[in-house]
Structures
1.
Amino acid sequence: MKNLSDRQQRILDFIRAYLDENGYPPSFREIGGNVGLKSPSSVDHQLKRLREMGYLQYEEGHFRSITLTDQEREVLPPQGMVPLVGNVAAGAPILAEEHVEEYIPFDAGPHPEDYFALRVRGESMLGAGILPDDLVIVRRQPEAYNGEIVVALFEDEATVKTLSRKNGEVWLLPENPDYEPIDGRACRILGKVVGLVRRY
Amino acid sequence: MKNLSDRQQRILDFIRAYLDENGYPPSFREIGGNVGLKSPSSVDHQLKRLREMGYLQYEEGHFRSITLTDQEREVLPPQGMVPLVGNVAAGAPILAEEHVEEYIPFDAGPHPEDYFALRVRGESMLGAGILPDDLVIVRRQPEAYNGEIVVALFEDEATVKTLSRKNGEVWLLPENPDYEPIDGRACRILGKVVGLVRRY
DNA sequence: GGAAAAGTCAAACATATGTTCTAAAAAAGT
DNA sequence: ACTTTTTTAGAACATATGTTTGACTTTTCC
């Protein structure tokens, strides 16, 4: 998708806000007044452009007939939803193939795009109350503090473990005596586990 | 609410359908043409009436500014949300005072009114991966099968336990050797635990 | 630097659209 | 039957709104 100019972006934003507030579309002059265009013909020009690019529609000769294209009107990531993108090992690492299976209801705050969910495989985190088939909600971040539960990439495979930082060493600890710690220097942290959803 | 005339009902229906299809409101003449009114003033008359009765709104001097009143377009219970109504013991029973603290995102299916959430107190269900401060999602039902996790009312206080039915006996089993089973005959089952949400 | 393209403005314009007014028709109440 | 209220129509009206045109400015490109 081509880049939008600053003004075009403001026009789209304004139309969306206006629709949201009033329930019907703004007039050309209302748009102009709010994005700094003093002539309706200038607005017309920009709207024609936006229409060509598929961002919106409006019928000639109809007043206040602007509608945003689905792509634009849609609440991009459904509110309070987090995408479930695959599996993550809590025992032997399993390949984390990334494709959205479904959306999990979870309040992800003001930046939902930083969140995703993974289904847990294996029993290495039993001691932390994380069971097989649980869904862990993860916030993308490259680092974490000692003691936090993280999702880490280890040789192309994802695992959930407790992060341990001590004496300059980094370890990924399972919460189950049957499993062995993993050397943290060999892996990259994908994010921190901020939530868990279980469905019986 | 006063009864609507046949024509008024048709006008409301038409506006709703038009909004649904076009994303913006119809003009007076479009309304008239579709409900059998030949003069815009007739439409104006009926719309004024409908506005007085609170069915819709529109601004004077604005074209195509009709909006249906909330009552007409509202979605009643917040979608995918379950009310958090209090605490439930997983150790010593705690009084389950019922007042809605907040709404927890959870896909409760077609009958969300049968679901509620409780915050877990105590550690009696550690073995089942249910930790203190976890939120259990409960579906109201008076009975449950052997092995299911239930919320039960025991002397005016709620607890989460695993239901055991054997040899005609009914027990509520903790999933922690430090706690004692409860006699199931002395309590009433509030519902079955169908989900769990944890926030770190 | 000059040409081409894109963006903007101002003014005049055409018309879609709500408004007003008066009157006729229909319905309701007496 | 008569009055009153409600509903509708038609025409003229005022204006909000999209459209067109031409010129001017800014940006982009070679």
2.
Amino acid sequence: MKNIRCQLFKGIKDEELKQLYNCLRARQAEFKGGEELYSFGSGKTVLGVITQGKVVVKKIDRNGNVNILDHIQKNGVISNAFAFSQTDGNFVSAYAVENTKVVFFDYSNVFKRCQKACEYHSQFVENLFDIVIEKSKTLSQRVEILSNKTIREKILSYLSFAVKNTGSTEITLPMSLTSFAEFLSVDRSAMMRELKKLSVGGIIKTDKRIITVLKREYI
Amino acid sequence: MKNIRCQLFKGIKDEELKQLYNCLRARQAEFKGGEELYSFGSGKTVLGVITQGKVVVKKIDRNGNVNILDHIQKNGVISNAFAFSQTDGNFVSAYAVENTKVVFFDYSNVFKRCQKACEYHSQFVENLFDIVIEKSKTLSQRVEILSNKTIREKILSYLSFAVKNTGSTEITLPMSLTSFAEFLSVDRSAMMRELKKLSVGGIIKTDKRIITVLKREYI
DNA sequence: AAAATATTGTTGCAAAAACCACAAAGGAAC
DNA sequence: GTTCCTTTGTGGTTTTTGCAACAATATTTT
């Protein structure tokens, strides 16, 4: 298996990485676009790195409503260890958005220090820590966005974070408007209506997936 | 300062703990009920353990809407390192619900290993890791709850997690109904109405803050 | 290039939720 | 015990949202 260079393995040398692969029982899997990542919804705890492609985590409730819980890009980490549990009435699953390669690790071995108490194992834990913190921050942003009552406020809250995170007032949505509505957990047509209102009000300018914030004092 | 026995210091001996306090520049602070925890909303990154009392993290937006972002109990960890950032239009603050004692640490020193590369420091990082994972899980549950469209679904989703987490179908809300509405980010009167509908429908039974789930197949 | 599929854009209508206002009950403080 | 304040409980009204349906573009697949 080719060595993966990503945040999870930052500061770990190639030869150490090989040993770590062994230690964590790394194995690669490939998924076609639209295909469901097995083992995510299963009871087993998984930890994986997306080395190619994109993954979306969705929840489908008993009424068939689809909610997007997470988007994971290349070099992103996917795990049910620290996010999104399955409840009786819901199915949480991860899907490859395009052709995707994932390297899975045995999560149970992460904290089992090998006999040699290797230093790079500590480094690995610290890297994983950073990633979980990052995910945690993203989740709290998500909570803040969703805790707005109206669609308008949700959109503006999203834009507020996006402007803050990117430093630009021209935001290109990393997903389709359909998915964006699912991300905000609102009806798509109602969202479109609200986007139009915001445009007419001169607060934003929209062109497909590109939203430009014109009046920063509103976000 | 008295030694704190909590998740954050699990597996660390008393004498090591003393050294760790020094290493992380631990300092205690007390807050009266209703008082705002300084330093949380400030730019500085804080890490604290609630050793007594209760804390609630709130967001107040430009329109004066209050949203509860988090509840932190005794032995819980409070930090802006991995959750809830301030944006231009919003104020995020933490308030003591009752008389509360907090021990603050210098977050910047957490990953600076002391010269002796003490083993307990690793243990500390691992403990903090567990806490962040826990918080992350709580946050994703929150996202799942909030990503329901209707108040009814939000309530049922909350109950679903509560039943799953506690193992009992009799749920005592850890907050007032007023706060519960803020937690679900819905209007209180609308929520009360929905609770009544669920009661009349025989799905739940309510008595103030005690909600008993009668038909598990609905949650 | 044509066909199939997904995305964007828009509307009328019904349902749900927010907002507002008020009364009663419960607790805390004096 | 009385006062004050918070919480609980309820109802009417307005606004917002979700739903369904459809057309027009894009995009992908064959």
3.
Amino acid sequence: MATIREIAKLANTSIGTVSNYLNEPSLVAESTRKRIEEAIEFFDYHPKAAARSLKSRFTHRIGLVPLISSEDNRSENPGDNAFLELLAGINTVAAENKYDILLSAATNHADEMKTYQRLFGEGNVDGIILQGIQSEDERILFLKKKKFPFVAYGRSDLPIQYAYVDIDGGQGIIQAITYLKSLGHSRIAYITPSKSLMCTRQRWDGFIQGMSQNELQIRDEYLIEGDFSEKSGYESTKAFMNLNTPPTAVLTSNDVCAFGVMRCLKEMYLIPGKDLSVIGFDNVSLSQHWQPQLTTFAQPFRKIGFLLMESLLDMIHGREQFPHKLVQPDLIIRESTGPVC
Amino acid sequence: MATIREIAKLANTSIGTVSNYLNEPSLVAESTRKRIEEAIEFFDYHPKAAARSLKSRFTHRIGLVPLISSEDNRSENPGDNAFLELLAGINTVAAENKYDILLSAATNHADEMKTYQRLFGEGNVDGIILQGIQSEDERILFLKKKKFPFVAYGRSDLPIQYAYVDIDGGQGIIQAITYLKSLGHSRIAYITPSKSLMCTRQRWDGFIQGMSQNELQIRDEYLIEGDFSEKSGYESTKAFMNLNTPPTAVLTSNDVCAFGVMRCLKEMYLIPGKDLSVIGFDNVSLSQHWQPQLTTFAQPFRKIGFLLMESLLDMIHGREQFPHKLVQPDLIIRESTGPVC
DNA sequence: GTAGGGAATTGAAACGGTTCAATTATGGCA
DNA sequence: TGCCATAATTGAACCGTTTCAATTCCCTAC
């Protein structure tokens, strides 16, 4: 395989000039450039990545540690499609900027931090994208301490500055309430996710703002803290529908919870979208095959991937310090919502 | 960041010995080993990947070019989950062997070959996994010519030796026929995929063998060459059911085709699994939510990922030349098949 | 004719490991 | 004690780029 020295020799110039051509062609005179191009063509020359990054300190790679469930599952895991769309988005921007994605997995979950230390320590990548952010996320603390470029998909509750892209759950809720109001709803219930989660607070702020903006009254008996389970949807609905004046619409914490709501309605011979409008969150693939099809929020994962990669490149090249970006979820209107009777 | 020289100095030994420790600890005496370990611990030392692979010619990375659909789709694309499971399998074996996966995308489809040339030419990876094999696949020709380690998921019709992992569609069909026979079926129809595809021939061989093994008669009017479309399932079924003695069971080319079969039955007020047993191929996520749930073949993608990576490692390390591996598809029995009435 | 300055080019040093032939240490045995 | 085989260690050379200070080239202005 040809090296830069052979190219230089054939093009009758020095390796320094060839290197310049490779990295900043404008530094090279027209005639020299032509000869170098011919030599490169002749040898089908590609500069070796290892040599390049040894000296330049740039790998043109970014790191990503996939969350892989250990068991074999081809199930409806909503995260699956999400990850793939995310990857597609990241990959698109990466390719446009001549970057590759390095996927590193830990053999077991306990070793996950070791994977990040290795990615960083061995100089395998120029930056890292984090997903599945947790409260007090130690990966964030680690990378921040090392001053290594990274972007997180999701906000944590750490009191430090770092780059992230996240869903604007609050704006979503506002949008949903406005939509429900336009259908004539005023008695809107809300099954919130568990209080301990980051997204809950953001959505809750949106709920308050959305209700006041639409001049609707928040009623305590219409609020239940659930979790992401089917059961919490089922049980909350039971409680709601046994009130003297039950709500006419309910916002749930996610699609699975919304399925629980609908199961309860079915048992009570009530019809989703008619007796109670139901809105989910996530747009899992089942939601469009359910009977009735579920109105829900979709996260534009591909766009999130774009933004993650763009932010990371900005950081790597020192164009920005800690970019923050929020994206609106898409309200996908299907059959589980309808005008109030 | 510490280098191997600093480690050697602190451990009071030479860089050669430290390098030995890193790569083949058995070469280093116990006492020296201890001092080196302490020094590594002290500096939190990680050998730089670039320096390592510059001289050793091993990157500890394998390359994979994902097939990314350009449009934003969070649809039921059956390939999506497949790819993720495949990746999970590859990643697991890779991690166990201290390998990472390099994902490289082309900005547009026309440049795909360039991506492979770059992956190879820049020395970015030790080997490559190919998916979506096509007839006369130029990637295979290229990598073969360069004598670069690669494993393909799927067979092509090229008359050259290369490593692959593939589904044993023929064995699947035999299994399906044996299963149908056990339910009392003898009039079995088969909607084959298009003749031009590699898998068709393999499945067809299985069909012949399965029928003769079960002492069943192949009848020409029960054979239709379809494609992977819903429509071909629909129209073939119309033809079958208008015969004087219609079949009691039908094997289809894939799940989508099977859905077409069932739509036709519904129109004719016939019941899948009762009036006609239907077997799909692929186990797309819809197949278990269909009414009735579809009996179909699932590909064990995660296992395929294992095998791909294991084969590739064998080739990289010169343990095998062109490993071939076939895996059985899993017949998933659901509601669209039943005993003959 | 010459000074000045920008554009183009040069080549040695550096990046941080691995490799390997050569050297030294160690232990067993007569 | 001396000899030999084997284990352990050494360090210089090398991998193929980038980098940068120094040099050369070329043109313009005076």
4.
Amino acid sequence: MSIPIPTIKRFPSYLRILNQAKDAGKKYISATNLAEELGLNPIQVRKDISSTGIEGKPKIGFDIEELIHYITHVLGWDNTTDALIVGAGNLGSAIARYDGFASYGLKIVAIFDKSTEKIGTSVGSFTVKSMESLNRFIMENRISIAVITVPAIQAQAVCDLLVKCGIRGIWNFAPKDLKVPESVVVQRTDLATSFAVLSVKLSKKLAESDDLDSDEDMI
Amino acid sequence: MSIPIPTIKRFPSYLRILNQAKDAGKKYISATNLAEELGLNPIQVRKDISSTGIEGKPKIGFDIEELIHYITHVLGWDNTTDALIVGAGNLGSAIARYDGFASYGLKIVAIFDKSTEKIGTSVGSFTVKSMESLNRFIMENRISIAVITVPAIQAQAVCDLLVKCGIRGIWNFAPKDLKVPESVVVQRTDLATSFAVLSVKLSKKLAESDDLDSDEDMI
DNA sequence: ATCAAATCGATAAAATTTTACCCGTATCTT
DNA sequence: AAGATACGGGTAAAATTTTATCGATTTGAT
């Protein structure tokens, strides 16, 4: 019944390819095709798709529209959710200006910062609001998702405040593991984590090619 | 011998806590302690640490300095690697201005863009360079890592160019699954993927608390 | 109309990752 | 000095995720 997290993580990539294929005028796509496009195992793609309950046709593949519809629904991206950003630094500003969230069903509606120098200035189409106005804003606009882009040292305090204001989902870009009550969901997006994987894979790869080099020398 | 990817992904978090503890003047830390700090299972922490070969002392824990040293080494963060950014948009600029990469052993040394309007302008402490100068720059400075922050539609072309120039590791922020030769490593950092997980967990959580609410109504 | 090729779906095997369990050891308390 | 406690380490079990296998189905070609 519940869909594995790794599958959830692949869904956005599927969506990208599917939308691309749809735009290209295609009506069906096979798991094999999707897999090639993403560098995945076709069997895995079929399994992922099967978790949505959608059925395909042998020799044809899956109905693209149907896949898009169901995956979007499973991700909850078919309804737009309003969110706010706390932290108008480099990253927060970049996120505020990014216009690609619409396709994730996410709509940034405000950005907050505690610095008096930033309050009132504009970031993209927003005017930076004060932390004092945060509580009221969340209540009045029934916001349930917040994006944290403050420095690590302030992250927990901001998080606590957000939770107190009733925020239920936190997308955390600060390099800090936040503690929240059981009723709140935190998802961390950490550059360090991502880069760690790149670092290790790269060293391994470089070591491999060094090995090859020395092998070749021996010929 | 080879360390599991999930372990690698947890290492940066360990490092953060360890450095924090070190700064607080502590000399030892237990797996239990680390686990609490990060919301992990202590057994898992011990297992992760055991993959570095470091041994702890019962009732005391692990030597913090030693842990920091080994984890940093495993991640290859003990030597600084130069990297460049391609794409001086919002995200590229934010990354160029971010000064936290030093602790990952990563040093951004230049930023490139194809837009004639951006070339020559400054982003943080850098001056945006032209794509024409990319090849020469990579050669002369022996760059092996590149960060891609161009729009999805240009990502593959930029990637191909980088590979041709000899780049071996690509940190891809574009929402696109890049195809590269076997000798090149790509790591994608995708906002959509991260947000997908948040979306699904949040809907589940909200559904749960709805259930609770209705349960309570029945009392 | 028959056969080959492509693909799906279900089940099971393999691989990976997480968690449990038990024992030994160092420290602290009384 | 004895015993309780906190913790590490090793082995094994459990859970999760990925991959393989095989039969069934649809299409297109001969």
